[in-house]
Amino acid sequence: MGELDAARIAPRPVLARRPPARPVYARELADLIVSTIEGGYILARAYNDPYVMVRLLKQFRQYLELLFEDAGAAGKSARA
Question: What is the pTM of this model?
Answer without folding.
Answer: 0.66
